Amino acid sequence: MLLDNENQNLKVHEWIAKYTEEGNLNIVTGYFTIGALAYLSKTVNKKIKDYRFVLGDIVNVDAVKDRTLDLINENITIEAALRLDKLAQEAVEFLKQDNVNARTLEPNFCHAKVYLFKPAANDDRDNYFISGSSNLTEAGIGLKETHNIELNIAETGNNNQYKELAEWFEGLWISKQAHKDKTLIDENGKKYTKPFKKYLIEEIEKIFIKYSPKELYYKVLFELFGSQIDSAHDNPGFNRQIGRLENTAILNTKLISFWFSKNYNSLSMAGGYFNVGTNEINSIPVPENAFADYWRSLSFLTEVNQYLNRVESTNITLFINILNALVVELYFENETYESKLDILKFVEQDLKEVLGKDNFEQLPDKRKEAVIEELHKRWSNPASEIVKRMNSFTEKSPDILKSILESK
User: Fold this and answer.
1) Do residues 322 and 362 make contact, with C-beta atoms less than 8 angstroms apart?
2) Which residues are paired to 274 by β-bridges?
3) Which of 36-45, 105-114, 272-281 has the lowest mean pLDDT?
């Protein structure tokens, strides 16, 4: 039978739910998402005695510090962002089971996608296989709509195709390319290994340990608001990072909070945020050509503030103030320039000297602390041009800004 994501036949997830009895399930996939793992856990977990997963090298060994993995993110939707924490915990509990075994392919990447089920009962008629294009992702198995065209062949029974695929899987499982351990690189550039399943668990745990509800809130805002952001930054590498959400930093600053309070003063507050929907978000005035100039500084400051918030640092106030000042400059570029209140060029110069071309989120914590300490030192120095301009902001700012700056 042909399974795709457009015809009237079963989707991959429906086939698995319908034909899986008590037995063993082997899966080969290049990628997986926590939502797809959670689906397996809910749907067939009580029936499966043993799982064996063969996964491609999800994170390149030279880019192991990448903050967010495809296996976690898969360009999550608004709905997925809101339930991400729960799904992450379900996926971790699934992987922690003793009957779940996982191996990674190194140095190869796994393009194959195969699902093989062997029943516990000695009845070959209940065997099944699915082979084709579907990764173990929510889009791949048909749990959510996608623009990709998926095509798979699925059959039950003990025919030659099933036998050949089962033999192929056993060979792959014991091959020298299939490793129980994951090769990683520490902050000093030295390679080390970690049990692959432990590595996956730790990476997924970061979703509900590292990412706060505020950051997930940013995700929702970006889904509603992100189409207005400069398309120059809408590239595949940028697209797959939660770092992309930093463009919504302006939505949580003093200026935009003031704008919301004046335009939607009847809206209720929920957890410190305005309870707004798509129409309200889309109504925010956005400078058309400003993001290309301000993006790196806004992104960096938001990343720093998120980090400082997680470690509960008292240094966060200074960086929040810098972020607020940059957003004011973003919206009132001419006014701040004429009043000599603009600070972007000084912020960028300090970032160039202190951070260089490094990505803050990919730095080890020790390096992050050093960057923050150096910038805090510079931006607290009374001789700094940034400090001088920040201190004179209220006094020299145009009248249109004073009510905003003096608001609580």
Assistant:
1) no
2) 269
3) 272-281
Task: Please name the residue ranges forming H helices in 106-159.
Answer: none
Instruction: Looking at the structure, tell me whether residues 204 and 250 fall in a common domain.
Output: no
d(CA 40, CA 91): 9
pLDDT value at residue 204: 82
Could you tell me what percent of the chain has a pLDDT over 70? 68
Cβ partners under 8 Å of residue 255, min gap 6: 324, 327, 328, 331, 404
What the block records as the tokens of 18 is 């319908």
Cβ neighbourhood burial of 314 (10 Å; 0-12, 13-18, 19+): exposed
Look at residue 63 and tell me whether its pLDDT is greater than 60: no
Tokens of 172: 């792959």
First-last CA distance in the chain: 64
**Residues 80-103, mean pLDDT to the nearest whole number:** 82
Exposure string for 203-238, b = 16+ CB within 10 A, e = fewer? bbeebbeebeeebbbbbbbbbbbbeebbeebeeeee
Alpha-carbon gap, residue 302 to 262, rounded angstroms: 25
224/204 same-domain check: no
For residue 231, give its domain range: 214-405
pTM summary value: 0.53
Strands of the sheet with 2-4, listed across from one edge: 2-4, 151-156, 128-132, 114-119, 23-29, 48-55, 100-105, 178-179
188: CB partners within 8 A, 6+ apart? none
Residues 23/118, Cβ–Cβ less than 8 Å = yes
> What is the structure's pLDDT at 81?
53
Helices (H) and strands (E) in the chain, counts: 18, 12
Backbone torsions φ then ψ of 92, nearest 5 degrees: -65, -45
Residue with tokens 């700056």: 405
Q: Is 130 a residue whose pLDDT tops 60?
A: yes
Q: Is the dihedral of CA 215, 221, 222, 223 positive or negative?
A: positive
Type of residue numbered 16: I
Q: Please give the C-alpha separations between residue 378 and each of 283, 284, 381, 390, in angstroms, as whole numbers.
A: 37, 33, 5, 13
Residue at which a domain ends, from 151, 177, 208: 208
Are both 187 and 244 inside the same structural domain?
Answer: no
Residue with tokens 């003096």: 406
Shared-domain flag, residues 136 and 223: no
Are 203 and 130 in the same domain?
yes
